[in-house]
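Final report, closing paragraph on structural work. Over the funding period we assembled a curated collection of sequence-structure pairs, and we close with a single example.
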Amino acid sequence: MDYLTLAFDRPAEAWNEALPLGNGSMGAMSYGRLREEKIELNLDTLWSGTGRSKENKNTDVDWDFLRQKIFDGEYEEAEAYCKENILGDWTESYLPAGNLHIDANIPELKEHGSYQRQLSIKDALEQVVYRQDGQGYLREFFVSMSEPVMALHYRADAGSGLELRISLDSQIRHVCSGYGISELVLEGQAPVYAAPSYYSCEQPIVYEEGKGIRFAIGISVQAPKGCIRQKDNTLLVTADGDVYIYLSGITDFQAQDSYLSRKKQMLEQICDLSYPQLKEAHKKAYAAYFDRMDLTLNPGIQNDLITKMFHYARYLMISSSKPGTQCANLQGIWNHNLRAPWSSNYTVNINTEMNYWMAEKANLSDCHESLFDLIERTASHGKKTAKEVYHLNGWVSHHNVDIWGHSSPVGYFGQDENPCTYSMWPMSSGWLCSHLWEHYRYTLDREFLRKKAFPLIRGAVEFYLGYLVPYDGYLVTAPSTSPENTFTASDHSVHSVTFGSTMDCSILKELFGNYLKACEILDITDLMDEVKAALKKLLPFKIGKEGQLQEWYLDYPEVDMHHRHVSQLYGLYPGNLIHREDKELLAACRVALDRRGNEGTGWCMAWKACLWARLGDGERALKLLKNQLHVTKEENCSLVGGGTYPNMLCAHPPFQIDGNFGFAAAVLEMLVQYQDDRIFFLPALPEEWKDGKISGLRAPGGITIDFAWKDRCITECSLQSQTDMVRILLYNGIEKKIMLKADTTVSYTHLTLPTILR
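Its predicted structure, as stored:
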């Protein structure tokens, strides 16, 4: 099996069989159809809305009243109060930009084996090759990593000739026109409101004249041995040999004043391109990201598939989160629905964060940066939410964010039984700050820490210092939920809102600890005393009557023991609060995770695999990854039976890209883990991965690691550091302290037990 290629012997019949291409700002899904191809287009900044405030109309929430209801166990009244007085409107939605239609005179598919479409993960290049009646046809397709351009090359054998009808359309209100002999431009303006697909209303899509994000898509066609003419906003191409199609798009998000000049520049750019030069520049620019690391496992059908899925995740990350673009949303950048699943927004109670668990470790630190831009934008709105909703300083965000930086709780219009279950969760600002700290840990970029990360972390800390309230000698969050999960109260009623959930406490322990470390690095004393005092009063981890790590302050029974969220285990992973020395807590984590089971949504299985890896159980982690690799179709999916679609995109269901990224994070967690100054090699290696090699792996402190193993033992290893530092390596049952020097590689080869590194 070629683990760097996705190959199919027929065109895609559905979106979940189409192939994704992208460069961060532009996404495309191709079906590989011979005669009536439709390539679905996305622009990363094309969203509904105008950035208007979405807070609840009530700006005078009685927090003392609400908290007393919670502490008295009057949960139903507390939830009713939250819904009426705190929850606000939905986020905005990520939108499809348009469709490129290419009708060709290529013969219908008849012979089995005469057709192949494939996506090269190595080169970010798609090809469709077809032979019929002795004639050959080729289509090559890429979204350039070097220029904001998509390029297609149609070619037919000599004598075959090509006749193409090329047009653009969009689900969004638009106009299409010609602007030259061989060019078309589509222009539209996004709706000011697009209701979530799960919200039933009379007018789900709302337009307002002169409002909404403007966008333009332009195409230009070259036929060196042919002719091109326009008819009814369609380009008619007749050519012998080659036809080249170039496409680009822009929006006026945060750039209204320069929209017209940028549109003119875009249209001029696509009229004067050389396909061979553009292709080579694209491959070189893409390789600068993809070639940073590699992974191989010993041969085997399952291992080859796992390796392919791992590299596919890296491909998707580069294609949807290139520096300077928007960060990957729930679907990366690929969405063909006007009312996308969950608005294709940023769900920040796990999904957006999971997108970036792999980023630093997989040597894609710069792809992480687009998330920081979103955090900064959200913090700006979050200051208003903190002040108007909570009457507190600092900034806060909840479980949903959009491109505008939506920060307030949604769910006021929720038509489900208890929208507080997902919406009453003001903890994402704390979780998002962990990514800022993680980036610093891996890069040691003091300027990033001082200028960008620290102000955002401090703002979140300031909010939570005000949000915490005393209870039984501790400081607790109230109201508090464990994301999307519910519990059974003593009167057998079902609720979500309580106080002091384990996840809340874990996030704050991590946030406060990181803040204190940042203060020491930057020689800052601001808020240190308050944070230290609060940190001492946060709730300890508690073990419940079943031996499990408790999910809430009180040992409530879960309504759904197999719930997809495992939020109480945040401190184990992605956090790093529960360590190998904490045997009792690790045992409690194991019980809690075991009770959740092996089923779940696609991303849920990836999170569980990461957790089992952190527990050192490679066999259980591998079982979860294999479950996730189960190929499924949309109609066969459920929330307890996610998997992978034929195009290897993760089935939540429907498609969510976090499962792809979480899969790669789990693979890396099985191969290497970090704790303080220690590096653990092969901490959760399953028997089936007995031999392998990885290169270009990153570790905190600016370290790059290559290592290989055979028969489950490390045989060679090299480490290169940006600075002088001491690290402790743990491998093959040996613990070794080494000194790393800046810009120097330390290598060990031909390693065998028991003399390794002696």
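The two ends are 39 Å apart (CA to CA). Confidence is low (pLDDT under 50) at residues 754-758. We thank the funder for supporting this effort.
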